[in-house]
Design brief:
The chain has about 400 residues and is an alpha/beta fold. It is about 25% helix and about 25% strand. Helix 1 packs parallel to helix 7 and helix 6 packs antiparallel against helix 7.
């Protein structure tokens, strides 16, 4: 019995040493949660959001890891989001993956022991009931200290309390879930050649689902006629602008530059008129759907990474099963041969067995142990991830 306890102590010591060695090369810092545009942490429940962080690999080998995000309000075991990331050797990269915000004020970031994480707890600004979130897509140069198109909510008479995000065309989200939290999307002097194809699809679906899209200059509407947004461009005049209903949403186009005109008529009730031009209805929040991933990548070589999920369970079964067999055989031999069996024999066997299992278990995250049949299936799905440009 004592020998079994000693053997298990040795096992846990080896596991802790290997975990420390493998995890010390990877680190996650500057983790934050943002909106789809990536500049504010002001989110309504059900909104599409991003987890952004800095991933550094100081080691000499490329590595893969899974980063998980769990809400402070989550109850079930599988109520978390996860995504796979590739960390090239000697690199620092800005990473992010999309998820769905559930209204919680706090989240926890983890990496299964594969990386050191600074400030793993993230806090999100609470969303007030009357808040509105607007998005301005523009490629106009912005100089610090000069009034910007994002300042329209500060015009005298502007009726709505809102926060305005500014983003360039090449940074526009490519999924509609990331756009639906915005009460209105304003296109102002944007360069459509910088847009991704999926961004056109996302904006079109956003309007069909009940969103409001506004063209802030006649040139923006004219340029859109040469893009997949052509079917959305309004042609019917409604007061001071053109308007068109599409699906459950609405599209408006100004007949003049809304911001250039603001300087001329800001004192004549223009703030209220601009507020009407940008007025929109909220899109109903979607139910939260958790997305998971597991390490699945095409690798021509091999790397050392700590196994997780079913692979980790398989490694532990083999490890503890082998130690149990060694202890059983040792006790049986002692009963038969007595003192002829030296204690250090079993110690050496346990150490060698542990080293072999731990090393093979850490090769490519334990792919060799996929052959061990375990009860139950794996319903996790892959999540497409990306890095900031």
């Amino acid at each position: 019995m004592r020998s079994a306890v000693r053997n298990i102590s040795i096992l846990f010591f080896l596991i802790s040493v290997f975990s420390t060695v493998l995890a010390q090369d990877l680190s996650i810092t500057k983790a934050r949660i943002t909106t789809g545009a990536g500049s504010l942490s002001l989110l309504p429940a059900g909104a599409g959001a991003h987890l952004c962080f800095e991933l550094e690999n100081t080691g000499d080998q490329d590595q893969y890891l899974i980063v998980s995000l769990r809400s402070g309000a989550a109850k079930g075991e599988n109520e978390y989001f996860s995504a796979e990331f590739f960390a090239p050797a000697k690199s620092v990269q800005q990473c992010r993956f999309p998820f769905q915000y559930d209204g919680s004020r706090s989240y926890t970031v983890s990496a299964g022991g594969m990386a050191k994480i600074a400030d793993s707890e993230i806090y999100v600004l609470p969303w007030e009931k009357n808040d509105q979130l607007h998005l301005t897509v523009t490629d106009e140069l912005y100089f610090s200290g000069v009034s910007s198109i994002t300042d329209y909510c500060n015009l005298a008479g502007f009726p709505n309390r809102c926060a305005v995000e500014r983003i360039s065309g090449d940074r526009l989200p490519v999924t509609v879930l990331q756009l639906e939290p915005y009460r209105v999307i304003l296109l102002y002097k944007t360069d459509f050649t910088r847009w991704y194809a999926k961004s056109f699809e996302a904006v079109s679906e956003y309007v069909r689902n009940g969103g409001t899209l506004c063209f802030g200059t006649p040139q923006d509407a004219k340029n859109a006629l040469q893009t997949p947004l052509a079917e959305l461009v309004p042609m019917t005049k409604n007061g001071m602008w053109l308007e068109k209903k599409t699906g459950r949403g609405i599209v408006r186009a100004s007949e003049f530059d809304i911001w250039q005109k603001a300087g001329e008529i800001s004192g004549n009730g223009y703030g209220k008129e601009l507020g009407n031009f940008l007025a929109g209805m909220p899109i109903a929040a979607r139910p939260v759907v958790y997305t998971h991933t597991r390490l699945e990548h095409n690798s021509t070589g091999w790397n050392l990474s700590i196994p997780s999920g079913r692979r980790l369970i398989a490694v532990l079964i083999v490890l503890f099963g082998g130690i149990f067999v060694v202890c059983l055989v040792e006790n049986l031999l002692r009963l038969v041969l007595g003192g002829k069996i030296k204690k250090w024999y079993s110690y050496v066997i346990v150490v060698l067995w542990s080293i072999i299992v731990l090393l093979t278990g850490c090769i490519n995250g334990g792919q060799l142990f996929d052959r061990l049949p375990l009860p139950g299936g794996d319903s996790e799905v892959n999540l497409n991830t990306g890095t900031d440009k």
